[in-house]
Amino acid sequence: MPAQLIDGKAIAQQVESEVRDALAKLPYKPSLVAIRVGNDPASELYVRNKARKAHELGLRGTELIFDVSMSETQLLAQVEKLNRDDDVDGILVQLPLPPQIDSKKVIKAVDPRKDVDGFHPMNVGLLHLGQRSLVPCTPAGVMRLIASTGVTIEGARAVVIGRSDIVGKPVAALLLQQNATVTICHSKTRELAAVAREADILVAAIGKPRFVTADMVKRDAVVIDVGINRVDGKLMGDVDFQNVRDVASWITPVPGGVGPMTIAMLMSNTVTAARARRG
Questions:
Q1: pLDDT in tens, 139-168
Q2: Is 210 helix (H, G, I), strand (E, B) or coil?
Q3: Pick the catalytic residue: 89, 115, 117, 225?
Q4: What pLDDT, in 10s, does the model give residues 259-275?
Q5: Is residue 117 flagged as an active site residue?
Q6: Catalytic status, residue 14
Q7: Into how many domains does the chain fold?
């Protein structure tokens, strides 16, 4: 029997409903400011979608767009201005940045209380310590998707393929917090397929189209595909969806799986940041 689909769009709508309910109880509209440097088409679309979703849910969403020639000093000054602005609750800097700007330095400059992407070293540290923090949006979305299946995370064997700071490592930390036994795999992992086959929960975030094949998946595993790859004009994930679906019990499609959750969790993070900072 083919795996059941995990509907990211439907679960994202649930998160958005929670955001609306939270906003209805606040005496103010939280403000999210997205910074984009340059005119990368993918970044332009993504930032525009974030701002549009913020307005749609009842937040104040603002785009700040700067020329690709902007200097690192100028961007840092802009971030500091937003840090000091008490009316701004969330700041995100769209990556990638032009080569003349050190992304790590800019991320570190964002007030961690307003770091709705969850990338600041302080928030990363708190996450790995299991303490309250602003969690990166995609990993937070992955956890909501897993929870929607009703599978028991505690005691489960979880394998994360990919060790990026944005997805792989934080997903592993969140799974560990819920008492899964977690293995992180990467390009240097020996017998990766054999390790992956041990997973009750398999998260693919390696950035290679159709990398995870059916022979790498345990029967009735939950498979979360974080990958977004464009091949011959078509979007596809890191999982060979058609074949893996015959093995797994639950699986996310691409598109329509993890993608919608990222923006939804960003909106949730903005409300969380506003409430924590404003009291």
A1: 999 999 999 999 999 999 999 999 999 999
A2: coil
A3: 117
A4: 999 999 999 999 999 99
A5: yes
A6: no
A7: 2
Separation of alpha carbons 5 and 251, rounded Å: 5
The pLDDT of residue 40: 81
pTM: 0.96
Is 108 within a domain?
yes
Expressed as residue numbers, the domain containing 183 is 136-260
Tell how strand 229-231 and strand 234-236 pair up.
antiparallel
**Distance (Å, rounded) from C-alpha 98 to C-alpha 241?**
34
Q: Mean pLDDT of all residues in the chain?
A: 96
Asked whether residue 231 is assigned to any structural domain, the reply reads: yes
Residue 101 falls inside a structural domain: yes
258: which residues sit within 8 A by CB, 6+ positions away? 8, 138, 141, 142, 145, 224, 225, 226, 252
| Residue 170, domain CATH | 3.40.50.720
Which of the following is catalytic: 53, 89, 94, 240? 94
118 pLDDT tier (thresholds 50, 70, 90): very high
How is 145-204 classified by DSSP, letter by letter?
HHHHTT---TT-EEEEE---TTTHHHHHHHHHHTT-EEEEE-TT-TTHHHHHTT-SEEEE
Predicted local distance difference test score (pLDDT) of residue 53 = 93
51 or 97, greater pLDDT:
97
Length of the chain: 279
* Same domain flag for 141 and 228: yes
Structure-token match 């970044």, residue found:
43
- The rounded distance, in Å, linking the Cα atoms of 72 and 179 is 41
- Is 50 a catalytic site residue? yes
